[in-house]
Structure formats: structure tokens, C-alpha cells
């Protein structure tokens, strides 16, 4: 199977490339393709993939807030170009979306049956990406995930680990509640779904509820690193351009209903990483 992966140079893109290495992977980095361009449609059609996995995006909520035109071009229109190409080829598209499509007003975990209502530009543009996927594709998987970490690449875990190891202070919010997700588990689950015809929207996260502060604390505890450099940011001193949902915990409800939810607790994953890699 020919699997085309966008954002192949990014954090999750690299995990997808590795996970699908037993297939004929077409890894497209930002240098290979700029999804903002209209000719993305023709470029993808020419490559004749059997499946497209699309994690490419402007992932930083603050960059999106500062430069909404860029966010709408990449996250929304870029996804539209890819969705049109997949619809012309009549192949499945896997779009990686986010917990930030939700407002955070709910005080129990969000399921796939809750109505999105994003509160920042990043969330709005990613939600529009979802809508384009639904508008143009018959065969799609929309995968919403949250606070993804892994043992390599640039992500929350590696940043926290490196900073604490080097004795640097880190400042993290302790009042935004969310889920977190091990990239290895996420790409494995996406691969499993990609071989089914169970198209639709899925939440894929590990068990456990975190704040960024709690997550760093757990990393310090499991990896035996000093905790005194982890500084709490409260609502008074959390000052970022993009508002964040206060509660964006996701529940893998559709996977649960299909008896396919084998995602572990994130603390177990951190322990495995510490055992295997450090
Ligand atoms: N990481 C998380 O915690 C998290 C949580 C929820 C959802 N997600 C979603 O997961 C996906 C992947 O996130 P990630 O963490 O892997 O982000 P990432 O490391 O920033 O990767 C995104 C990739 O997209 C590429 N890209 C940006 N603009 C592009 C354009 N115009 N054309 C082609 N490629 C472009 C980037 O290339 P350059 O860097 O060279 O510009 C980068 O390689 C995103 O869709 C994000 O919304 C991530």
C-alpha cells in the first residue's frame, strides 16, 4: 500500500513514517509540498497514494492567534486541498485534529458526540479542516488527540526532560485540564483503524487527566529529576496570546463502544520509556 504522509518532518509525522515503514511510504515534508498552494491537489493526485495521513499544520495556538491568515491558509485550506485530492482518488484520508475544537465549558470528558465550539484561532481553523474533510471525502478518519509526547522529536516530554536535566526552570500552567497521548500508541491505533472501514471521528488519548504542571511533576518523579525547577503558572500569571480551554479532557468513547480502547494510563507509558530508553 502507498501511504502518503504530510508534515513528515514534524514530530508526529516522523512517528507515522516509522509506523508505516512496512508499507511504501511517501513522506512529504514542508520542503516537498506547501499545502497552502492550490497545486497541492494535482501534486497528490500525481503521486497516486492508496492512503493519505495528514498531520501537517500550524500546531502552535499562539502562532495561529498572532497570524490568523496563515492558520486559515494551512490548517483549513491546506486540509481542503488534501481532502479534494483524496476525494478525486477515492482513497481514505486520515486527518489529525485536536481537543482544542472544544470550548472547555464541560466538566466531564468530551466524547465524539459532543458539539465542538472552539475558543481560539487554532481550534477554529482545525475544526474547519474537519468540516472540509467531511464535505469532500466519503472515506475519512478524523482523529482528535491531545498533548502528544514521545521519546524522540520536539515535544512536551523531551522539552521537560532536557530542561530539568540541565537544571533550567520551566513554567507550566496548573489549571488547564486535559488528556495526554503517547505518540507511539497514537500511530499504532491509527494504523489499526486504517485497515478497517470504520470511517468517522475518533478521540485517541491515553488514560489520566493532567495539567501541564502535573505532567512535568510526573516526568520528574519517574525520571528522578529535580522538581524545584517546575514553576506553577496560575491564572493570574498565565499570559499567552491564545486563550486555552480550561477543560479539554477527551474520552475515547467510540473506541470504547467498539471494544477497541486499549490505551494505557500515561504514567505507565512514562515508566516504560524510562525503563527502555534512559
Ligand atoms: N503535538 C500535539 O500535542 C498535538 C495535540 C493535538 C493535535 N495535534 C495535531 O497533530 C498534528 C501534528 O502535530 P505535530 O506535533 O507533529 O506538529 P509539528 O511538529 O509542528 O509538525 C507539523 C508539520 O507540518 C508542517 N507544515 C506546516 N505548515 C505547512 C505547510 N504550509 N505545508 C506543508 N507542511 C507544513 C511543519 O513543517 P515546518 O515545521 O517545516 O513548517 C511540520 O513539519 C497537527 O495537525 C496538530 O494539530 C498535535
UniProtKB/TrEMBL annotation:
Coiled coil start-end: none
Single GO MF descriptor: dTDP-4-dehydrorhamnose reductase activity
Keywords, alphabetical: NADP, Oxidoreductase
SUPFAM superfamilies hit by this protein: NAD(P)-binding Rossmann-fold domains
Pfam families assigned to the protein according to its UniProt record, in alphabetical order: RmlD_sub_bind (PF04321)
The keyword Nucleotide-binding is assigned to this record: no
Pathway(s) it belongs to: Carbohydrate biosynthesis; dTDP-L-rhamnose biosynthesis
Source organism superkingdom: Bacteria
Enzyme Commission number, as recorded: 1.1.1.133
Gene Ontology cellular component list: cytosol
GO BP annotations, alphabetical order: dTDP-rhamnose biosynthetic process; polysaccharide biosynthetic process
Domain RmlD-like substrate binding: start-end pairs: 1-272
Family: Belongs to the dTDP-4-dehydrorhamnose reductase family.
NCBIfam families assigned: rmlD (TIGR01214)
Record function comment: Catalyzes the reduction of dTDP-6-deoxy-L-lyxo-4-hexulose to yield dTDP-L-rhamnose.
Name of the protein described by the UniProt record: dTDP-4-dehydrorhamnose reductase
